Amino acid sequence: MNWDKASGRILLAVTGLSCQVVTETIYALAQQDRNMLPDAVYVLTTREGAERARLLLCQEGWFGRLLRDWELPSITFGPEHIQIIHDARERPLCDIRSQQDNVSAADTIAEAVRTLTTSNTEQLHVSIAGGRKTMGFFAGYALTLYGRP
Length: 149
Prior knowledge:
Order of helices and strands: EHEHHEHEH
Shape: globular
Largest sheet: 4 strands, parallel
Oligomer: single chain
CATH architecture: 3-Layer(aba) Sandwich
Number of domains: 1
């Protein structure tokens, strides 16, 4: 994924098999302040998580229903916004089970946050609610390194 082409207000979510954290986060942002809603959503996940996200969220899935039902503005999100975390040999991770899997996840997440905070991104919101606990930790930790006001 070419993270440096992202622009505007971005929501980056780490997810596992429960991709509904994306719609839950959008809903929470809408309830808090509709001006905080992102222009686009990007997801980092495992191979199985990506398949579920494509089936449940994209096109006319739950994501589209949320936008319609709550009369939210258009938010760009499609299959091209879902990135699968790969291992050191560039194979898609099915899950994060080993030390090396964790290193690959940490590197991918940190690089995504770093790039998104140095690109044309006006605001970066990161949902740390999904995926393995380590994925949320990596995303939060990356924000401590690269985040800005």
